[in-house]
């Protein structure tokens, strides 16, 4: 718990000792105790069930790995899948969004854990993303240490599920690190792979520096306000002493740095391409969705709940970061060489950087208008999570026959795997914001409207230009899918004198991977048919 609760408990104990006169015995002491508010907190176990269940499952999987023979290690993956499904089921009774726990029992009403609508939606996103990551991984862990892999994935998912419910800076930082530290190990889990080790080291070092800067900012904020609860920080920053104003502003700015790194916002994005390329493909998918959700959740909580008094500090900063991030991501994606090894993953990595820029726009807009703008970020994040995981799922399928995963490897995919090609084309059109990806179009319009409504016309123009730039590489990749495969003759027949080409060789797709593609495709089609299912979050307050 935070320092506020410890101080309260100490003062109450001192008051009890001072009030009880010598020789009055237990009766007087009990009467005094009856008048003192209890500092013993009742825990709402249902509210904390999703992250708690995920963390317990991680420990169970780690222990079970010690006793299972090698040929039964696959059961650990199905146990992980079951645990995540159970954690998602526990979100159903929380959908009313009115539960809190670990609350201060005296003085101001402040809680360290709140299961409001924002928490439930983000937990559904991260747990669902982890669930799909498991489906992508089930047939790719044979050459990896299975027990450690599933343990690290569940541990990271538990931290990611805890973070959106955190309502004090201490819990927020702990949740952020619980989500991040296992991710470092997952990136470098391919033993003997130089690229994987390099990616993990780069990811780790840059993240540690960002975390150190963020902790310095948290300490400055605590020094200026004397509390760690987000709602209390907001109240005390309203009338902070002029002597401490510079310290508070510096703390606000430094705290944002750590979350900007997690969101892959420029110029804190440099770790993304190499990390995605070096990591196992399912982990790259996990980082692109769950890792990004972690960063944006923390950023939203500290800006909208804790630092509204300093909107003049973080608002312009985030607006500039949004413009810079989307521009850097799209320009870098344009420069990808189709024949370069792993160019498909690199393009998805730079695309995720550009998408982070779009996600930052409503948060910046909230500084100039109202907190309801945050709903646009949540709606866009839900769309992005579904279609980006789907794109990575198809990339994982192609990688089974083309380990280089070049963009040129996707040429003629429709001839060999028509359904996979149609699915990937649909996902790319959603990311581009073109029909039939209606949900992508509406999500972009919602973000664009948030900027216009907040008076950020220049940012809306920058976004519009970047959307046009992104059309080129999304449509180019989509067109590659439907071209004739390399080496296939333009015409074939007995009169040409050329031998008939052999049909492309096909491999049976693993069932879990096929299931992931089907689930993401179905979700994308459903959301395109009923876009208000997620766009409604853009019109309501989630806190």
UniProtKB/TrEMBL annotation:
Keywords: Cell membrane, Membrane, NAD, Oxidoreductase, Quinone, Translocase, Transmembrane, Transmembrane helix, Transport
UniProt membrane topology term: Multi-pass membrane protein
Amino-acid biosynthesis in keyword set: no
Transmembrane regions: 42-68, 75-92, 118-137, 149-166, 172-189, 201-222, 251-272, 284-307, 313-335, 347-368, 380-399, 419-443, 455-475, 513-534
Pfam family, one: Proton_antipo_M
Transcription regulation recorded as keyword: no
Known catalytic reactions: a quinone + NADH + 5 H(+)(in) = a quinol + NAD(+) + 4 H(+)(out)
Gene Ontology terms, MF aspect: oxidoreductase activity
Protein name per UniProt: NADH-quinone oxidoreductase subunit N
Protein source organism: Streptomyces globisporus
Gene that this sequence comes from: nuoN
């Amino acid at each position: 718990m935070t320092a506020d609760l410890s101080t309260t408990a100490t003062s109450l104990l001192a008051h009890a000792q001072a009030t009880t006169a010598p020789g009055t015995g237990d009766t007087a002491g009990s009467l005094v105790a009856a008048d003192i508010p209890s500092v013993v907190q009742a825990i709402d176990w249902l509210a904390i069930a999703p992250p708690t269940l995920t963390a317990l499952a991680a420990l169970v999987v780690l222990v079970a790995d010690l006793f299972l023979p090698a040929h039964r290690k696959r059961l650990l993956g199905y146990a992980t899948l079951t645990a995540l499904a159970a954690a998602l089921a526990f979100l159903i009774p929380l959908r009313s969004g009115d539960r809190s726990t670990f609350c201060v029992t005296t003085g101001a009403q402040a809680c360290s854990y709140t299961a409001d609508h924002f928490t439930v939606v983000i937990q559904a996103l991260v747990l669902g993303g982890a669930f799909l990551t498991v489906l992508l991984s089930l047939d790719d862990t044979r050459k990896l240490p299975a027990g450690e892999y599933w343990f690290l994935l569940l541990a990271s998912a538990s931290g990611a599920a805890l973070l959106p419910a955190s309502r004090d800076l201490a819990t927020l930082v702990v949740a952020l690190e619980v989500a991040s530290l296992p991710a470092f190990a997952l990136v470098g889990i391919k033993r003997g792979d130089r690229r994987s080790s390099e990616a993990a080291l780069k990811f780790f070092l840059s993240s540690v520096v960002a975390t150190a800067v963020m902790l310095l900012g948290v300490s400055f904020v605590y020094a200026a306000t004397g509390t760690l609860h987000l709602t209390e920080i907001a109240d005390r920053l309203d009338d902070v002493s002029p002597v401490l104003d510079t310290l508070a502003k510096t703390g606000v700015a430094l705290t944002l740095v750590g979350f900007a790194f997690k969101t892959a916002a420029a110029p804190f994005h440099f770790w993304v391409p190499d990390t995605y390329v070096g990591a196992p493909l399912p982990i790259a998918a996990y980082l692109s969705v769950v890792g990004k959700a972690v960063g944006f959740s923390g950023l939203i909580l500290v800006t909208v709940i804790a630092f509204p008094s300093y909107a003049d500090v973080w608002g312009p900063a985030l607006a500039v970061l949004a413009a810079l991030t989307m521009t850097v991501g799209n320009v870098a994606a344009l420069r990808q060489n189709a024949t370069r090894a792993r160019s498909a993953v690199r393009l998805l990595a730079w695309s995720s950087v550009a998408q982070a820029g779009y996600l930052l726009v409503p948060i910046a807009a909230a500084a100039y208008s109202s907190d309801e703008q945050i709903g646009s970020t949540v709606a866009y994040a839900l769309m992005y999570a579904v279609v980006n995981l789907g794109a990575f799922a198809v990339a994982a399928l192609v990688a089974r026959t083309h380990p280089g995963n070049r963009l040129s490897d996707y040429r003629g995919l429709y001839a060999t795997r028509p359904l996979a090609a149609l699915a990937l084309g649909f996902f790319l059109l959603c990311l581009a914001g073109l029909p039939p990806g209606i949900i992508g179009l509406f999500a972009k319009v919602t973000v664009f409207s948030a900027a216009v409504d907040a008076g950020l016309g220049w940012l809306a123009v920058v976004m519009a230009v970047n959307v046009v730039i992104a059309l080129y590489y999304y449509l180019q990749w989509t067109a590659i899918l439907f071209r004739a495969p390399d080496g296939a003759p333009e015409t074939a027949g007995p009169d040409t004198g050329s031998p008939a080409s052999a049909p492309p060789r096909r491999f049976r797709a693993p069932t879990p991977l096929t299931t992931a593609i089907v689930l993401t495709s179905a979700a994308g089609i459903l959301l395109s048919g009923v876009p208000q299912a997620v766009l409604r979050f853009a019109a309501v307050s989630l806190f």
